[in-house]
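Dear H.,

Thanks for agreeing to be a second pair of eyes. The structure we're designing against is below in token form, covering all 343 positions.
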């Protein structure tokens, strides 16, 4: 692959609250340096909902010589709110590009699921239930055409708005059901997970994406570190119970066995597929997820790290981990990724 990447979380913003409370610029620079030097990444997808944080992390990454994928990630926003966010971020991304960095702008992610107006449902949870066939009025299969039309209409407007402010290449992080028209974009971007149900045709699906002719980026892939997580594909977080008022993760819905080697093997196998099928860029989801801390020694259901797709485990008491001054420790997936990217 040309770009060997990982996603870096600056904080997902939903209803005015952020999933990453601590955002120290010195820590950000140190973590991005680890991504470059220890993981041997050549690119980083900077994701989140706060434009200032995105620009800060993107600037740090650019100064470290990493290719930057500037990725605002709207949650529960209206179309107008998303366009305002993209306009702001496109101007910021252009400033980073002006420093001489290679910058790709990612015009949102999984919009039909994560935001309002594309699928029925007032919240992400409602829309996810529909995707899983648990909602009223039939499953998503009956709505694919309608959803695709709405997504493509919006993306055509969004892409034009971004290009007015940003001179680099642009893409979008799609889920397969959206059936995106890639005409307005330079790169085909897809969040792609291998589950047990599609394992036998996963490679063929990647091959079909590459056959479209434009460079293909796997903008999101990964799994968690509990046994059987890889079989669930993109549904690894279904084992988490959330606070009904804030949506914050609280505990796991049962006891699960830790399987860091399973997470590492999943990443290694998918990267081998992406290499073999000619994918241009791939971004592991993700480096760390602060809101899913590691809590060993207590109730196993409280150890949210088991469900985290992060390749490091965030320490709940914020003590130093393997890297002094950084409150996390690498999982087996960290070493597997470093070996693959550095090979």
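And this is the sequence the design step returned. I haven't edited it by hand at all.
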């Amino acid at each position: 692959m040309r770009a060997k990447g990982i996603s870096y979380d600056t904080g997902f913003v939903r209803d005015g609250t952020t999933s990453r409370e601590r955002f120290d610029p010195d820590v950000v620079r140190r973590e991005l340096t680890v991504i470059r030097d220890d993981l041997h990444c050549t690119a980083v997808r900077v994701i989140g909902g706060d434009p200032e944080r995105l620009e800060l992390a993107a600037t740090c990454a650019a100064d470290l010589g990493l290719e930057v994928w500037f990725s605002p990630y709207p949650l529960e926003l209206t179309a107008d709110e998303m366009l305002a966010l993209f306009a702001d971020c496109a101007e910021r991304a252009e400033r980073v590009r002006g420093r001489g960095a290679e910058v790709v702008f990612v015009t949102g992610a999984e919009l039909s699921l994560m935001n309002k107006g594309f699928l029925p449902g007032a919240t992400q949870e409602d829309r996810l239930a529909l995707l899983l066939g648990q909602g009223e009025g039939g499953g998503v299969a009956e709505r694919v055409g309608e959803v695709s039309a709405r997504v493509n209409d919006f993306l055509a407007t969004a892409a034009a708005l971004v290009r007015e402010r940003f001179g680099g290449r642009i893409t979008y992080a799609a889920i397969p059901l959206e059936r995106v028209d890639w005409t307005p974009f330079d790169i085909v971007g897809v969040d792609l997970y291998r589950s047990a149900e599609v394992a036998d045709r996963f490679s063929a699906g990647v091959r079909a994406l590459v056959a479209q002719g434009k460079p293909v980026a796997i903008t999101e892939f990964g799994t968690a570190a509990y046994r059987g997580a890889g079989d669930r594909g993109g549904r690894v977080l279904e084992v988490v119970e959330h606070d009904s008022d804030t949506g914050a993760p609280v505990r796991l819905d049962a006891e699960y066995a830790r399987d860091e080697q399973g997470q590492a093997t999943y990443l290694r196998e998918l990267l081998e597929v992406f290499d073999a099928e000619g994918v241009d860029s791939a971004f592991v989801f993700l480096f760390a997820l602060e809101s899913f801390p590691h809590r060993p020694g207590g109730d196993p259901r409280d150890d949210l790290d088991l469900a985290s797709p992060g390749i490091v485990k965030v320490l709940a008491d914020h003590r130093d981990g393997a890297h002094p001054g950084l409150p996390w420790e690498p999982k087996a997936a960290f070493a597997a990724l470093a070996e693959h990217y550095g090979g």
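Two observations from my side: The longest strand covers residues 3-9. The chain has a mean pLDDT of 94.

Warmly,
E.
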